[in-house]
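Polysaccharide biosynthesis/export protein
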Amino acid sequence: MLLRPAFLLLLTLLFSACAEKGQGPVISSGERYASAASAVSDYRLGVGDRVRVTVFNEPSLTGEFWVNPDGMISLPLIGSVPARDRPVSEIARDAQARFADGYLRDPRVAAEVMVFRPFYILGEVDAPGQYPYVNGLTAMNAVALAKGFTPRANRDVIRIRRQGETDEVNYRLTPELIVYPGDTVRIGERFF
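Structure:
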C-alpha cells in the first residue's frame, strides 16, 4: 500500500521538474504554420541582411549594401537610409525620394534582399551553429542543415527565439513550421 503513494509522489515530482525547466505551453498553429510562400512576403529587414539597390541608368549608384549594426543602409550620395524593421519596398521608395531631392532628375530605384541574415540552431542536433537562411525555410529543413537529430533529441517540440526577443516559444514540430531569418532554434532533449 505504501508503494502506491510513493509512486504518485514520484510522478508529481517528475512533472513538477518538467514545469520548472520552462517547458510552458506548446503552440501548434498560427503565423509560423502558414504556407512557406508567405514566410518572407512581408519580410522586414534586420541587421545582417544584404540588399541590392538598383538606380536605373546610374551604375555608379547601384550596388549591394549591408544593413549596419545601427539599422541603416549607407547609399552613395544620399548617405544613411533607415532600414531596420522596414520592408525592402519602403527602402526603395525612401531612396528614390532622396535621390530626387536635388541629386537626380526622375530617378527610378528598385531594391531586393540578396542575402538574409542567418539563423542559429543548437541543442540536440549533430552540427549546431549558424547557417545561412533561405526563403521558405522550415524547422525540418533547419534540422537537416544541422545534420539531423541526435539520438536523445525531442522530435515533437522545439523552442524558437525570434531575433530581438528574450523568451523562447515552444512549437509542435511539423513539416509546416517556418523558421525566420535571425531565429535561434533549440532542439531539446527528450525525457524518456
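The longest helix spans residues 3-20.
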